[in-house]
Amino acid sequence: MRNKFHITIKFFILLSISCNSIFCQNKNIKIATLDRKNAYDKKILFLSPKFDKKYYNKNTEEDSAFLNNGKFEFSMSKQADNFPRPYKFILELQRKQIYRYTESFYFDNKSKNIIFDSENGKIIDDNENTELKKQIFSYEKYMKNTIMQKKQLDSVKYASYKNNSFEKIKDSLKGKYEILKLKEQDLLYNYSKLNPNSIILFWEIVDRIEKDGYDKKYELIFNNLSKEIKQSFPGKILYNQFTILQENIEGNLFKFKINNTNITVSKKFTLIDFWFSHCKACLEEMPKYKSIYKKYKNNDFEIIGISTDRTNYIDDWKKVINEKDLPWLNLLDENSVEAQKYNINKFPTTFLLDKEGRIIKKDISPEELEKFLDENMKL
């Protein structure tokens, strides 16, 4: 029988004597304290914002709690507004070894009880407000066919990983995902005109630009949303993101700073490779890049690696550079401070630049890179 855990999230208001209003100050009171030394002895649940923290209260932090009498209990700071925001739970089953992610869920400033299935991460029940439930149902019904198509493509992709056939089908699969993406964008645009007050659609746009980066179609969809949503705190953040993300699109000059210094290039072609030390896909591509680098390094081609490792993994970053014998310049964007500004949050992410630093192509694969260089460089 599957285990089901009951989660209670409570909000506490700290009354401040210096305030003129008893509601002017909210305090995050932690009920459970995480003792990482004993993490493996008890099940631990982490509460985390689904998206970048800039969309949330400035004091929003990842919280954690131990299982206690079948419940995990959290307390959180109240948001300055009552705009529903998506969160997720991460269940640690074994100390730093096995984690299970739940489906995302929404809550505002009200107390909330949630029940989820610990085996598959599905949310079984929560006391969501009725209006938001209607919006979720409406959105999923409208997008039903494309949601099913994406699940089918995902199943094919994951199956190919297991039977080691991904390399054979990846180009075909990529094309199918692109066709589906265009179909989804058309549906989302039409849905935005029919449902300008959809908070669910707003967060869907956030989800897509965090995964895909800037796309004019997502900005047009956002523009169809209501004034109330666009002028909300998360709405203003997303509006600013559209401006920032346009900077690093194909055809524009690549803008990125390390230690407040702009990255500059001088070679005919330069590959910028964003990675981190525990990124399996990143490490698997490095031998391919080494081969390409060896072939073209004396022919006006350069690679610059930028790691986004956290502070406690800097030694691992240095170890990878030494063990893999990476011969190009390797820089560190510690804790992904700069990368987060440009929604660089999937890895590896690559940019191919020309001599002036303009972006020729984003997310170019090693195979595509070698083909491009073969066609545009003389050996």
Measured between the Cα atoms of the first and last residue, the distance is 64 Å
The number of E-state strands comes to 16
The helix/strand series, from N terminus to C terminus, equals EEEEEEEEEHHHHHHHEEEHEHEHEEH
Mean pLDDT: 83
Could you give a quick summary of the protein structure above?
The protein is an alpha+beta fold and 379 residues long.
How would you characterize the overall build of this protein?
With 379 residues, the protein is an alpha+beta fold. It has 3 domains: 4-127, no CATH class; 134-248, no CATH class; 257-376, Glutaredoxin (3-Layer(aba) Sandwich). The protein is built from 11 helices and 16 strands. Helix 2 packs antiparallel against helix 3 (166-194) and helix 3 (166-194) packs parallel to helix 5.
Task: Please give the structural blueprint.
Elements: E1 4-11, E2 44-49, E3 63-66, E4 71-76, E5 85-94, E6 98-101, E7 105-107, E8 112-117, E9 123-126, H1 130-142, H2 144-162, H3 166-194, H4 199-212, H5 216-223, H6 227-230, H7 233-245, E10 257-258, E11 261-262, E12 269-275, H8 280-296, E13 301-307, H9 314-324, E14 329-332, H10 337-341, E15 349-354, E16 359-362, H11 366-376
Helix pairs in contact: 2-3, 3-5, 8-11
